[in-house]
Amino acid sequence: MFPVETRFRIKDDLAGIPSVEERRALIDRVAHSSQFSRSARLRDFLQYVGYGSLESGGSEIHEHTIGVHVFGRSPDYDRSQDNIVRVNASELRKRIDRYFETEGAEETLTFSIPRGGYIPLFQWREAPTSSAIALPEAQGLTLSTDASLESVAKKPVSRKLPWAWLCVTFVLVTVCCIQWWQNRALRILTDTWAGRPVVSEFWTSFVAAAPETHIILPDASVTMSEEITHKQLSLWDYIHRDFPGSAHGSNMSADRQRDLDTIFGHNIVTLGDFAAAQQFLALSPIAPSFHLSLARFFEADSINHANMIIIGGRKANPWTALFDEKLNFGLEDSDEAASLCVVNRHPLASESARLCPSIGQNYITAYSVVAFVPNPGRTGKVLLLGGTDSDATAAAAQFMTSTDGLNDLKAQLHSDHIGYFEAVLKNTSLRGAPFRAQLLSIRAQ
Can you give the C-alpha Rg of the chain in angstroms? Predict the structure, then answer.
């Protein structure tokens, strides 16, 4: 996608400067378009910087003031530790671009928010230029004499011209063949669908279920705080930013409270969880439609209308609490194993009620849980992945993006179509090698 700035120019005549009323009306049209209809926070962001630029006469609008007035941060919050404004500004710029490429394609006035600042830059669309060359009028032009025509007719024609055209044609054909071959090689290299129909079928259907698809990374700060306080942080407190807050408890010492404040001041994602997200972002034909965000910056108003890929178990990603009670398989702490274990709430005769990771002399065994369910509004799809450790979570993501994994699911579900399900994967590895996932138990939803 090319930036808006490359497609437009600023009118350089004073008469072409848009009025305040024109700019305000354009901001309102964009803010109330379909691009912002389901994201009230981004709409507030746009109107704050848009109206602010009109009222301030173009003076700078600072990240700190946006964080306070739009995202409800305290006046003394640390921007170096909390980048919520920068993360949402990136998404805001994308949606503005999409508006002017789609429903706003006929707008004569446009704007963008250049990187490095938050002041909208208003521009007129550049009028298309004609490639035709005007010919001079033929009035008064006459041929001098018949003799002139005769002299021209008798002028010998060069025999070198056809050979020159043949050389040029040969060069052009050669260049086209080289470019075709290079494009074909690049397409084969980057097209993750090549020879993988089951992957194409599942993921194309997944993203088509709703207008947006969010990949929600876990928040390792939650895991660390729960291990310190021995208290689970509720989704309600997490959504309303009441952390550390009520999670401290009344008996928490001042030093321990400061430790928790420091932990929550950082956005922490483990390498395995990030590797899991990369598996989905490598699905090149649909990757541009994914929105990657940290759990603490995900907006609750997207829950009922968007697709979601929620990475991490309940201990690391509070958003899984929306689905935990409806699922048979889950992840729970085990004091006995001193780690997370998979719990099977209603085991079948051949299944274990609890599966915990183990480490042998030359191998490691871990487990992960995968659930494919509708979103709460039943207007989109949700994929949940969590492991007894972050490497097991990455193995689950690899399973769900591989031909072997999805074919295994179809076989176990006894269906040509992968419907809603939940499953447990057993992940084994020789020391130093990546996990290899094996489908252990499955339930159709």
Answer: 30
Q: Which two three-digit tokens encode residue 348?
A: 């079948």
Site of tokens 């084994």: 428
| Burial zone of 387 (CB within 10 Å; 0-12 exposed, 13-18 middle, 19+ buried) | buried
Contacts of 402 (CB under 8 A, 6+ apart): 199
pLDDT per residue, tens digit, the chain (445 aa), is 434 443 444 343 344 688 889 999 999 999 999 888 888 888 999 999 989 888 866 668 889 889 888 888 888 888 877 888 888 888 899 999 999 999 999 999 999 999 888 999 888 987 654 444 343 443 443 434 344 434 444 444 445 556 666 666 777 777 777 766 656 555 544 455 667 889 999 999 999 999 899 999 988 777 777 777 777 777 777 777 666 555 455 567 777 777 777 777 777 777 888 888 999 998 878 888 899 888 888 888 888 889 999 998 877 888 888 898 889 999 888 766 567 899 999 999 888 999 999 888 778 899 999 999 999 989 999 999 999 888 889 999 999 999 999 999 999 999 889 999 999 999 888 766 767 889 999 999 8
- Domain at 197-219+269-444, CATH class: alpha beta
Q: Give the separation between CA 245 and CA 261, rounded to whole angstroms.
A: 9
Determine contact, residues 40/302, Cβ cutoff 8 Å.
no
Question: How many Cα atoms are found within 13 Å in the side-chain-facing hemisphere of 268?
Answer: 13
Q: Where are the domains of the chain?
A: 4-125, 165-189, 197-219+269-444
Cβ-contact 241, 72 below 8 angstroms: yes
244 cis-preceded (ω within 30 degrees of 0): yes
User: CB under 8 Å to 281, separation ≥6 — which residues?
Assistant: 215, 287, 290, 292
What are the C-alpha distances in Å from 104 to residues 32, 89, 97, 402? 12, 20, 9, 39
> Distance (Å, rounded) from C-alpha 403 to C-alpha 382?
20
Q: Rounded CA gap, 195 and 202, in Å?
A: 14
pTM for the complete prediction? 0.59
Instruction: Say how far apart CA 237 and CA 231 lie, in whole Å.
Output: 12
- Distance CA(424)–CA(355), nearest Å, equals 10
Cα distances (angstroms) measured from residue 59 to each of 52, 55, 62, 268:
9, 9, 10, 35
Residue in this structure with the two tokens 């808006």, named with its chain if needed: 4
Query: Hey, what's the torsion of the CAs at 291, 292, 294, 297, to 10 degrees?
Result: -20
Helix (H, G, I), strand (E, B) or coil at 441: strand
Cα 111 from chain centroid (whole Å): 23
